[in-house]
């Protein structure tokens, strides 16, 4: 049988012969700790005894999974678009029907089952442009500069793809904050670009300091070609909201140092601290006058997954490109055409986010009530999280000014650090794994996002319902005290 | 103002400083001819006079845009999943409701707005596995080998990404058919992999000949490391359906030559010719016994976009991986996790495709009626297309055995070839552009898919409704005669 050696032949594709850049990719938000959480859930459902009755996943910004309710109006319109027969149903409000009709009229054959233009449905891009103009107090926005995307991740990877070139010391470097959202490091690893870390300042509520940007850039220039600067505002995983002044300084820095700016602004509605306000990079750029607004290249990303809607599963998003070279833009349009189009239901949802019910429309009151309820609950949970965590000796938590996460610093006893290191594990991974096994709480270790050497953190979403969040926080508190005692 | 040179500074990102691999990407299906078609549509809507009253887009397999109706049951379930309030609506059939409940129960928080597992919703993967087992007469399928995708394109690019490595003569080469679907060439260009062309035999109805595979492979081995072989069956753009024997030969070839097989089987329900039947690569592989079924690495791709459903806009799909090395599989799982998950509405739709109404269920009769109507109409149009085109002197068209396209060969007079070449245009691009300007019909030139030197073709979908297709075919006929006359 194995005369020709077929049955015993080795695999074509093995870990040693596969794409080495893929192997370098890491994505902590869905890493080993989440694998283990899923296993524990399965074991629980099989009746295995655990020291807890359920796994609470505070590892990912997945609002609906944590019980947040969708906006009724959005889902009504999506149902109408999915099954247009419902347009004859008198129980649906008229404004939902008129939105659905408008979306369907922009779809080939009046169906969400048709491909859209690769850049996205034109009428949706128009609505996005008008939304941005309202948000930015009238700064003009051209629908032709809007690209709809499959979630923000898709847009970010696409833009990075355009930027990467060169070899050796000429290789493109991209500046990202540390801590960062690991999509960035994963995409840069896959593209073999150089990751340039700039550290946020934990002592001043994760502020972004120009001197640190300069340090990181100057060092990087010795071994690569830094070309882009990524900012996440409001911050993920760190929850800070940047001041207007800081944004202006960053833009001035980018202009001086000739950096392409990428502003991840998916949490633009998630601002809780009274002292903070969301300022879009575009608005600040245009306020700085033509010297900047005509030259600085900027892409801003938004998504249907966060804010008050939390519609992650639909994979909707957009990016706005500003001051992009025309030839590059043509290349971008060509590149996105290969994947045909972003999912149309996600495009429809993006449309509703940027064009929600207006005063006087039948769905307006309900929409405002639902949106306010979600955002107020998040604000309350942001405060609760910070307060409870700061009562624990050995945990210190900056205010959660915005976004959906706290990223507290934890003190890990030397003995625990040693045990972890002996096991080849990051100390905060060791901590989070123990927490999971003992309490069922799933958090992500700070090492998955990056942190200053010798410091340890975890990222925790503030999304669980208040009663569950309270239990969770108290369990973390108890666990931390026990853990500290055990290893002291 | 320009003291510091800011206002006059050059762009960071220009055509000369962007990623060179992106520049190499080409995607004819949405290339310049489609751009022009969109312009013409805009001009018509602005009241400009043209020699036609509408643009007919036969360039892309976009069924709903061409008037094909969605399957009622699918859309009912999607509406129920989007807006679960409708579960109380008595006008929806019970089987639609029970499907919707099952899908929602698999979604976090009972909402399609939650992220799913990155590999896809578990219950959907179970349904896919059962579908494959039914399709392949009981060959077992493990849901753990199923990955849901954002359309088939996403899956294909992901698998290619795993395969590509090496530099220079060790660079990964991937064999693709010529003519090909240009997603393959685009993805290979972007990944800097080596494209290895094997030619389908137009004289024998676009058959795939092992001797040609061998020739292509032997030549390629001199300058790269061929590792994978891609097959599209039923064929795009060529419409052929492979015989069981041919598939067996291809598998034997892959085993002998140590090639990783990628079978693009998105048209598996689109078989029209009485003499033809769809055979999955997996089924044939398992029929060949353990010598092959335990060793040959195969990935098969499917999608919600084609067949009788034509739901392109939802970007749903799956891939089944067979005999993949466990460590590589773990890398694949990690890689897909970076993009979080495929769109959940597309996953739900994929679930319905693999688990449609069953005998005895209230929606069964209607479902069968709708599916049969669409597939019969396509079969009729496949024949019509071949017949009419073959009445034209200078056009010769193979039978459209399956898929959704005809790819007829056209004779272009020397004078036209010269005029095109003088303009720096491919002769068939020149032909198709003229056709578009004179008739409003949008086709894709054969050069966008690849063809033997000195031959010319176009790809035309068979999707327009029969009456429109008849008009279209007659206009093509008229145009070809006029064009031939003009340039003779």
TrEMBL record, chains A, B:
<dbReference type="GO" id="GO:0042853">
    <property type="term" value="P:L-alanine catabolic process"/>
</dbReference>
<dbReference type="InterPro" id="IPR015421">
    <property type="entry name" value="PyrdxlP-dep_Trfase_major"/>
</dbReference>
<dbReference type="GO" id="GO:0004021">
    <property type="term" value="F:L-alanine:2-oxoglutarate aminotransferase activity"/>
</dbReference>
<dbReference type="InterPro" id="IPR015424">
    <property type="entry name" value="PyrdxlP-dep_Trfase"/>
</dbReference>
<comment type="pathway">
    <text>Amino-acid degradation; L-alanine degradation via transaminase pathway; pyruvate from L-alanine: step 1/1.</text>
</comment>
<keyword id="KW-0032">Aminotransferase</keyword>
<keyword id="KW-0808">Transferase</keyword>
<dbReference type="GO" id="GO:0030170">
    <property type="term" value="F:pyridoxal phosphate binding"/>
</dbReference>
<dbReference type="InterPro" id="IPR004839">
    <property type="entry name" value="Aminotransferase_I/II_large"/>
</dbReference>
<dbReference type="Pfam" id="PF00155">
    <property type="entry name" value="Aminotran_1_2"/>
</dbReference>
<keyword id="KW-0663">Pyridoxal phosphate</keyword>
<comment type="subunit">
    <text>Homodimer.</text>
</comment>
<dbReference type="InterPro" id="IPR015422">
    <property type="entry name" value="PyrdxlP-dep_Trfase_small"/>
</dbReference>
<dbReference type="InterPro" id="IPR045088">
    <property type="entry name" value="ALAT1/2-like"/>
</dbReference>
<protein>
    <recommendedName>
        <fullName>alanine transaminase</fullName>
        <ecNumber>2.6.1.2</ecNumber>
    </recommendedName>
</protein>
<feature type="domain" description="Aminotransferase class I/classII large">
    <location>
        <begin position="93"/>
        <end position="474"/>
    </location>
</feature>
<comment type="similarity">
    <text>Belongs to the class-I pyridoxal-phosphate-dependent aminotransferase family. Alanine aminotransferase subfamily.</text>
</comment>
């Amino acid at each position: 049988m194995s005369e020709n050696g077929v049955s015993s032949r080795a695999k074509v594709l093995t870990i040693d012969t596969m794409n080495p850049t893929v192997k370098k990719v890491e994505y902590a938000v869905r890493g080993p700790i989440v694998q283990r959480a899923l296993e524990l859930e399965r074991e629980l459902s099989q009746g295995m005894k655990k020291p807890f009755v359920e796994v609470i996943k505070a590892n990912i910004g997945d609002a609906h999974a944590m019980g947040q309710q969708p906006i009724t109006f959005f889902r009504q319109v999506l149902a109408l678009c999915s099954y247009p027969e419902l347009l004859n149903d008198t129980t649906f409000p008229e404004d939902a029907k008129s939105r659905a009709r408008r979306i369907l009229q922009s779809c080939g054959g009046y169906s969400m089952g048709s491909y859209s233009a690769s850049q996205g449905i034109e009428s949706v891009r128009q609505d996005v442009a008008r939304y941005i103009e309202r948000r930015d107090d009238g700064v003009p926005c051209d629908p032709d500069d809007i690209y709809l995307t499959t979630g923000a991740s898709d847009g970010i990877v696409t833009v990075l793809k355009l930027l990467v070139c060169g070899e050796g010391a000429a290789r493109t470097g991209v500046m990202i904050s540390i801590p960062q959202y690991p999509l960035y490091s994963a995409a840069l690893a896959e593209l073999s670009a150089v990751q340039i870390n700039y550290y946020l300042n934990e002592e001043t509520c994760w502020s972004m300091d120009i001197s640190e940007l300069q340090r990181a850039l100057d060092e990087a220039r010795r071994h690569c070609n830094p070309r882009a600067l990524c900012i996440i505002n409001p911050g993920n995983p760190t929850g800070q909201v940047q001041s207007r002044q800081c944004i202006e300084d960053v833009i001035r820095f980018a202009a001086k140092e000739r950096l392409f700016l990428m502003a991840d602004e998916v949490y633009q509605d998630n601002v809780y601290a009274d002292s903070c306000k969301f300022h879009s990079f575009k608005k600040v750029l245009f306020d700085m006058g033509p010297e900047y607004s005509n030259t600085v290249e900027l892409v801003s990303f938004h998504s249907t997954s966060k804010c008050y809607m939390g519609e992650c599963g639909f994979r909707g998003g957009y990016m706005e490109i500003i001051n992009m070279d025309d030839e590059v833009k043509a290349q971008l349009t060509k590149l996105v055409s290969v994947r045909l189009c972003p999912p149309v239901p996600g495009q429809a949802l993006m449309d509703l986010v940027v064009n929600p019910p207006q005063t006087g429309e039948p769905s307006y009151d309900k929409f405002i009530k639902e949106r306010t309820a979600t955002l107020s609950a998040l604000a309350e949970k942001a405060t609760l999280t910070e307060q409870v965590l700061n009562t624990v000796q050995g945990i210190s938590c900056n205010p959660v000014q915005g976004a959906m996460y706290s990223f507290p610093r934890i003190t890990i006893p030397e003995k625990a650090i040693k045990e972890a290191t002996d096991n080849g594990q990051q100390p905060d991974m060791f901590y989070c794994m123990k927490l999971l096994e003992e309490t069922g709480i799933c958090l992500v270790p700070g090492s998955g996002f990056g942190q200053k050497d010798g410091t340890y953190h975890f990222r925790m979403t503030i999304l669980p319902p208040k009663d569950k969040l309270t239990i969770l926080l108290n369990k973390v508190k108890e666990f931390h005290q026990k853990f500290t005692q055990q290893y002291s």
